[in-house]
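User: Here's a structure from my thesis project, written as structure tokens. My advisor, Dr. K., wants to see whether a designed sequence matches the one we expressed. Can you design one independently, without my sequence as a hint?
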């Protein structure tokens, strides 16, 4: 028995010593799915190329709940790794704004606003101001991270902030206008992300103007008016000279007020087909989908309920491609299917697929919102709704073309209350533009955070299995430990009895 205690003590001591040494020398074993605690090659390149020192002031409150404290600790460890990699070109300090009024004033003046969190003290819940932001400075340039969301992609936020203030020349990115496309202000979430690495400008084609030579990537989002032949010829010339193109197109439109869906023809669909990508005039439906609000009359009352609507597919199946890396769910509105109709001289890469229960219906269509969908209605799987095409669209230079068969997925809209998009919708087009334009590798960091695994999207059988495993596994481990312990004591007792017997 004494040997057991000694061995246990030595093992615990060894573990404690290893943890202390790892903490002192900042060594960590990263076994997370997305390598959340390992600096990416993109970050290392940014730090290696720093020509002047960068200063990071982290404004973090103290005495906060454990999950908030973990955010502070994770950010501190990330800064330690940045400083080690930067070899003296990055310095940081932590400031507690709640400690002094001057610290709080300094934080708010830099754009770091506090958030209110609930803190439990002596069986009472009270609200406390908490700061979780940082100011990154290089000479007279400054960039602010106003709030670090627990579980968010910290490395992307920090690396892009450093990149933004250290870059000397940004790539110019163009958004086509003049054919009913939304303005940049109607895509404010996307525009905010793109401003970090790009000079974003509108491109309006006329009889006397062409796509500027400075633009490497052109983006076309949801054109609603016809694109005439001269403009299509300018797109031909843009691809031929090595330009890259991202297109988000509505091949069909849906009118929920009249429960009717119809085909849209603007000329761009025929031009895309000539390049090798056919966006079909159909509606993709999927069992994994969004919902619409249905009003029902109950006597004198009008009741509202949320009803699943398969014409709003929720994309959760992606190919292994830089554009889709790390994405979880993208909500589409009246999407269409895509087919490759080109030749072998171009490389076709599907990006987005429907789930295993899906279908497509040719337009026009009348929508039955109250329809009860069965498996017989959704016999297909893996319908393609987005794809990338690489190859020579001219004589010599290779270009890239990405087509997404829904033009509304990234539009916030205008007015006083634009809608808020889920992050993956914005990341899909941001990643597309990065893949077409930027070679820094930051594309892989945007979605490098805590992976979403919502249990309510699992099958009922899987939910039941997880529930019983969570309930039974601890009991089973205790029982196994008890049996091993019982068997060990029994063997020791038999051994002592045997020794006593021999002694007699």
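Assistant: Designed independently from the structure alone:
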């Amino acid at each position: 028995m004494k040997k057991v205690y000694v061995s246990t003590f030595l093992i615990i001591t060894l573990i404690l010593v290893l943890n202390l040494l790892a903490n002192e020398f900042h060594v960590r074993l990263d076994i997370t799915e997305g390598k959340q605690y390992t600096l990416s090659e993109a970050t290392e390149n940014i730090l290696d190329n720093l020509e002047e020192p960068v200063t990071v002031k982290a404004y973090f409150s103290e005495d906060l709940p454990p999950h908030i404290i973990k955010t502070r600790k994770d950010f501190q460890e990330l800064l330690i790794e940045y400083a080690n990699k930067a070899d003296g070109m990055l310095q940081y300090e932590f400031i507690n704004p709640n400690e002094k009024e001057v610290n709080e004033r300094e934080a708010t003046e830099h754009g770091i606003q506090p958030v209110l969190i609930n803190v439990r003290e002596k069986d009472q819940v009270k609200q406390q101001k908490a700061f979780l932001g940082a100011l990154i400075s290089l000479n007279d340039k400054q960039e602010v991270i106003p709030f670090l969301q627990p579980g968010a992609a910290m490395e992307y936020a920090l690396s892009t902030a450093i990149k933004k203030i250290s870059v000397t020349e940004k790539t110019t990115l163009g958004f086509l206008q003049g054919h009913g496309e939304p303005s940049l202000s109607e895509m404010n979430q996307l525009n905010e992300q793109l401003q970090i690495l790009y000079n974003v400008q509108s491109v309006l084609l006329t009889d006397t103007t062409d796509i500027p030579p400075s633009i490497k990537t052109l983006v076309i989002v949801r054109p609603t008016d016809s694109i005439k032949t001269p403009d299509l010829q300018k797109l031909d010339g843009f691809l031929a000279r090595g330009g890259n193109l991202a297109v988000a197109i509505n091949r069909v439109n849906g009118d929920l007020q009249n429960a009717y869906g119809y085909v849209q023809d603007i000329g761009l669909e025929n031009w895309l087909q000539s390049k090798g990508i056919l966006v079909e005039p159909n509606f993709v439906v999927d069992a994994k989908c969004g919902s619409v609000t249905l009003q029902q009359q109950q006597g004198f009352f009008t009741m509202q309920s949320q009803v699943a609507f398969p014409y709003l597919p929720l994309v959760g199946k992606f190919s292994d491609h830089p554009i889709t890396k790390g994405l979880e769910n993208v909500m589409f509105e009246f999407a269409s299917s895509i087919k490759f109709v080109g030749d072998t001289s171009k490389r076709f890469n599907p990006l987005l697929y429907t789930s295993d229960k899906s279908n497509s219906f040719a337009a026009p269509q009348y929508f039955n919102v109250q329809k009860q969908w069965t498996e017989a209605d959704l016999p297909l799987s893996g319908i393609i709704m987005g794809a990338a095409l690489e190859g020579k669209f001219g004589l010599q230079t290779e270009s890239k073309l990405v087509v997404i068969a829904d033009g509304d997925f990234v539009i916030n809209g205008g007015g006083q209350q634009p809608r808020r998009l889920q992050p993956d919708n914005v990341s899909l087009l941001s990643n597309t533009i990065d893949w077409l334009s930027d070679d820094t590798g930051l594309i892989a960091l945007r979605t490098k955070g805590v992976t979403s695994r919502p249990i309510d999207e699992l099958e009922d059988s899987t939910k039941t299995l997880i529930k019983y495993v969570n309930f039974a596994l601890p009991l089973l481990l205790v029982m196994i430990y008890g049996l091993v312990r019982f068997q060990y004591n029994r063997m020791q007792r038999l051994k002592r009895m045997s020794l006593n017997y021999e002694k007699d």
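When you compare it with your expressed construct, this may help: The chain has a mean pLDDT of 85.
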